[in-house]
Design brief:
By secondary structure, the protein is mainly α. The protein is 73% helix and 0% strand. Helix 4 runs antiparallel to helix 5, helix 11 packs antiparallel against helix 12 and helix 12 packs antiparallel against helix 13. It is flat.
């Protein structure tokens, strides 16, 4: 006996109904779903992020930052919920905890420090293989600071005496134009430890090409001079010396002092204006460090250097510049009285200076200690 099924209904035309909703109804529907199913927040944010990538509309940086921040919060909440559940039951297995962390953290790897955070996570848990894999991905894909990742890998390959991989990661740093000098210095140390003079020399010369604002030509010059064989050093010293003269006058003068070229240093500080510092700022102390080194050998020349430094700070000055002027005058007095033993000359010259600026009582007040 066939029974008629009266409860059968037509299929609910979901797609058609959704397309018929206006903006207000769509908003209400989505809002209701989010209220009842908070887990959908993550899916909605990921939908917005994907839409953002494919949209031709101009998006502000703040739009991008806000979506990324919201996504990061959702990922963290998911991971925290899983870890909290483990803790309620006395903690979960390490593999489960790792998977919960790995899954959420891997979704937010962009900067080098993001990768480094994950490397330290694996290292703390004794998973050296995953730590190495993550560091490898970081030096090739990470943006921004990659120092820790390159250091981690180079330490590992140095310990293993793995020359091919050591050279490989140096090539990566050069191709990505990041950490070039750091990695070439490490390659130099690596070859030096293996007593491979030729390849160590080559790495050191390449490292010299990447000297920046945070490194020193003087230090590099001494490093090469100490390491190179005499025959090799004689071939390149003049070129290196002249290049440094063009690139950094301060470092050049330091080398001149080491080479006992004191007359060259004196002529430079008396006749040339000090260049700006590495950060583009005027150097208030100028060539003072060199003048201090030369006061015994060339007292008369250094007196004029310090006298001019003091004099320039008085006209149109204030208490601060007057105090600086007095410090230079103290140096002049010391050379006259202690080195040259010519105190009367100092007294006469200083008296004339006070007379010239007798209408600047603040200066005279600061200078009264000199007598």
């Amino acid at each position: 006996m066939e029974i008629e099924n009266n409860t059968q209904t037509d299929c609910f035309p979901m797609d058609e109904r959704l397309q018929s909703l206006n903006n207000a109804d769509l908003y209400e529907l989505v809002h209701t779903l989010l209220d009842k199913k908070p887990d959908l927040n993550l899916l909605v944010l990921e939908w917005f992020k994907e839409k953002q990538k494919n949209s031709h509309k101009t998006r502000t940086d703040q739009d991008i930052i806000q979506i990324n921040d919201d996504l990061l919060f959702e990922y963290w909440e998911n991971a925290r919920d899983i870890i909290s559940e483990f803790n309620v039951y006395g903690g979960g297995g390490r593999d489960d905890e790792d998977e919960a962390y790995k899954e959420e953290r891997m979704k937010n790897l962009h900067y080098g420090l993001d990768y480094w955070d994950l490397v330290t996570f694996y290292t703390d848990r004794g998973d050296s293989q995953k730590a190495l894999e993550t560091a490898e991905n970081g030096i090739q894909k990470g943006e921004g600071r990659l120092t820790e990742l390159f250091d981690f890998l180079s330490d590992h390959f140095t310990e293993k005496q793995d020359t091919s991989n050591m050279e490989r990661i140096v090539r990566i740093s050069l191709s990505r134009k990041t950490e070039e000098k750091n990695m070439l210095d490490r390659l130099f140390d690596y070859y030096k430890s293996l007593k491979d003079y030729e390849r160590a020399k080559e790495a050191l010369l390449r490292s010299y090409e990447f000297i920046g604002w945070d490194s020193s030509y003087y230090t590099e010059y001494k490093k090469m001079k100490e390491f190179f064989k005499d025959s090799d050093w004689k071939k390149i010293e003049n070129r290196i010396f002249n290049e440094i003269k063009e690139k950094d006058l301060y470092e050049y003068l330091r080398i001149c002092l080491d080479k006992n070229m004191k007359k060259t240093v004196l002529n430079t500080i008396l006749n040339q204006k000090p260049p700006r510092g590495k950060l583009g700022l005027d150097m208030d102390d100028g060539f003072d460090e060199f003048a201090d080194e030369l006061e015994i050998d060339y007292p008369e020349g250094i007196i004029e250097y310090y006298w001019q430094k003091a004099y320039n700070k008085i006209p149109g000055g204030n208490r601060k510049t007057y105090m600086s002027a007095v410090r230079y005058l103290e140096k002049v007095k010391y050379i006259y009285t202690e080195i040259l033993q010519e105190e009367p000359v100092w007294i006469k010259r200083f008296s004339k200076l006070k007379s010239e600026f007798n209408k600047r009582p603040a200066f005279l007040d600061e200078a009264k200690q000199l007598k």
